[in-house]
Amino acid sequence: MRRIGLAIVLVVSLLLAPLAAEAQAAKVPRIGYLGNGNPPRATSELPFAIGLRELGWIEGQTVTTEYRWARGNPDLLQGLATELVQAKVDVIVAAGPRAISAARESTLTIPVVFVYLADPIAAGFVSSLARPGGNLTGTASEFETLITKQLQLLKEAVPQLSRIGILRHSDGSLAIRGAAETAARELALTSRTLTVAEAGKFESAFKTAKHERLGAVLVLPGPYFDVHRRQLIELAAKYHLAASYEFRNYVEDGGLMSYGPSINEMWRRSASYVDRILKGAKPADLPVEQASKFELVINLKTAKALGLTISPSVLGRADQIIE
Q1: What is the pLDDT of residues 172-214, one digit of tens each?
Q2: Which of 4, 145, 158, 289 is spaced 20 to 30 A from 57 at the CA atom?
Q3: pTM for the complete prediction?
Q4: How far is residue 282's CA from residue 111's CA, in Å, rounded to a whole number?
Q5: 197 class by beta-carbon count within 10 Å (0-12 exposed, 13-18 middle, 19+ buried)
Q6: Is 157 a member of any domain?
């Protein structure tokens, strides 16, 4: 009887082994992507998705990505982050302070990879760049250190510029605001900081800038502004104000100029963090990488509409000129 029992166990084990192996092979890692804006026409065109493919991760085959979009409403981010946690994703990818905070508040165990344009240590997201600690790591660009060059380029592009508006979102980094105001003083520019909380207040800010005869507007970085960038660009044109932005997509959409880190490169680098985490690395041991690629983009068509002649010295430093 004992031999018969052992034989039965052996037969059952042999029958179940392929099923267990198949189930294990079928387990595909799941990534949670927490986006601030609207869904793109094709998620496969996102720089993050491109970065994953370059690393051998094929959507729908070797990895699955759960996308959640706030559609320009930051108040939705906390609920969306909770959805991703409930979906039992293996890692969450987020950009901007509200999205990163929402992911952190939703989980202390699921790794979070961030893309952040301010100091992540000052924001309390990591303990240090070298050893982040906790479950967060990613790429960062301390925009505070770039503001002076942004203003220098804008001042060179706009002759006789003496007064400037600094446009910031109410959720924006106070450190970046302070750096912008300090940089303006150092460049002998009188600045007026205009803080807005919602898109409905954008026009009021540009009206104020025009009324107070500000010669240009520096738009500080922020996911909310990026979502509504076309409205900002249209208002700058309507009120005939030169404006400088954080990323090239503003200029591609008709803005005058941008100087800042390559956000596409930062997103592609975030894919490498996800790659390492899915292969067993812990976020606490992955140093935060700072942006290393920066780009100046100028739209000559917009400059002409504003009656500006960009000096050869500025054009010679541009990474791209849109005509």
Answers
A1: 889 999 999 999 999 999 999 999 999 999 999 999 999 999 9
A2: 289
A3: 0.85
A4: 8
A5: exposed
A6: yes
3-state secondary structure of 247: coil
CA distances from 42 to 45, 93, 99, 199, 231 (A): 6, 18, 21, 26, 23
Regarding whether 93 and 112 lie in a shared domain, the answer is yes
pLDDT in tens, 300-318: 999 999 999 999 999 999 9
Q: How far is CA 129 from the centre of its chain?
A: 18
- Return the CATH number at 242: 3.40.50.2300
What lies within 8 Å, CB to CB, of 60 at 6+ separation is none
- Residues paired with 295 in a beta bridge: 260
Please list, in sequence order, all residues whose beta carbon lies within 8 angstroms of the beta carbon of residue 118, skipping any fewer than 6 positions away. Answer: 97, 140, 142, 143, 144, 173, 175, 176, 221
Amino acid letter, residue 232: L
The answer to whether the CB of 259 falls within 8 A of the CB of 146 is yes
91 and 238 belong to one structural domain: no
How far is Cα 287 from Cα 37, in angstroms, rounded to an integer?
Answer: 27
Which candidate, 199, 228, 219, 194, places its Cα nearest to that of 209? 194
Residues 153/296, Cβ–Cβ less than 8 Å: yes
Q: Which amino acid is at 260?
A: G
Which structural domain range is residue 46 located in?
9-142+263-290
Per-residue DSSP letters for 261-302?
Answer: E-HHHHHHHHHHHHHHHHTT--GGGSPPEEP--EEEEEEHHH
Question: Do residue 82 and residue 15 come from a single domain?
Answer: yes
CA distance 21 to 13: 12
Q: Is residue 1 assigned to a domain?
A: no
Domain count across the chain? 2
Q: What angle do CA 66, 71, 75 make, to 5 degrees?
A: 95
Burial label for 182, CB within 10 Å (0-12, 13-18, 19+), is middle
